Amino acid sequence: MAFESIADYIPEIEKQLAKGHSPNAIAKALGIPKKRMTIQRFKSEVFDISEAAKTAWEEEKKRSREERLEEGKARIIDDLEGLNLAKLRGVQLLELDIGDPYKTAGDDTTKELSLGSVAIYWDMGTKILTQAVKQSREIAGDDPESRKADALEGLGEPDLRKLRAILIAEGAGGASQMDE
């Protein structure tokens, strides 16, 4: 073993390095100040992740652009499938009616949904469905904020100056119209 002289201290050294302590501070805290260079070597050779990160980055750079795009597309598709499942669950909860039969886990007796239970499911289904629809619209760029950004992006510099002046005037209490 390359670090036999500090072998008894390695678990504590690793904990301290993970907390961001310097090899010098660790050596002092453990009462082995003469071993600070050994701890420094240990940190560089064993605990330092920069070499592993560099290797991983080199491997990533070797992958083709198409491979990275396909991987990104797969993640997006997985996210959209998750949103579709959430929408489906919301719709399923909204389709429940008073008196619908159900069975609880571990109980074979059939019961009927009450008004209170259905109201809870409808509320939950509404929340799930509206949140999923909101998320999918944000992804598609069809939410109010995206539309505002698109509208502002289409304005020219003079129009933006005029709009800024109107907003400043309205903020100061004066009312003005954009088509002046």
Report on this model:
The model is unreliable at 175-180 (pLDDT under 50). Helix 5 (65-94) packs antiparallel against helix 6. The protein has a two-stranded antiparallel sheet with strand order 1-2. The chain is built from 8 helices and 2 strands, in the order H-H-H-H-H-E-E-H-H-H. A hairpin with an 8-residue loop joins strand 1 and strand 2. The chain folds into 3 domains: 4-59; 65-142, no CATH class; 144-180. With 180 residues, the chain is mainly α.
Features:
180 residues; two-stranded antiparallel sheet
The count of helical stretches stands at 8
Element order, helices and strands? HHHHHEEHHH
Largest sheet: 2 strands, antiparallel
The outline comes out as extended
- Return the structural class: mainly alpha
Topology, number of strands: 2
What is the topology, as strand order, of the major beta sheet?
Answer: 1-2
Percent strand equals: under 5%
Helix content: 55-70%
Radius of gyration: 31 Å
Describe this structure in a few short sentences.
With 180 residues, the protein is an all-alpha fold. It contains 8 helices and 2 strands.
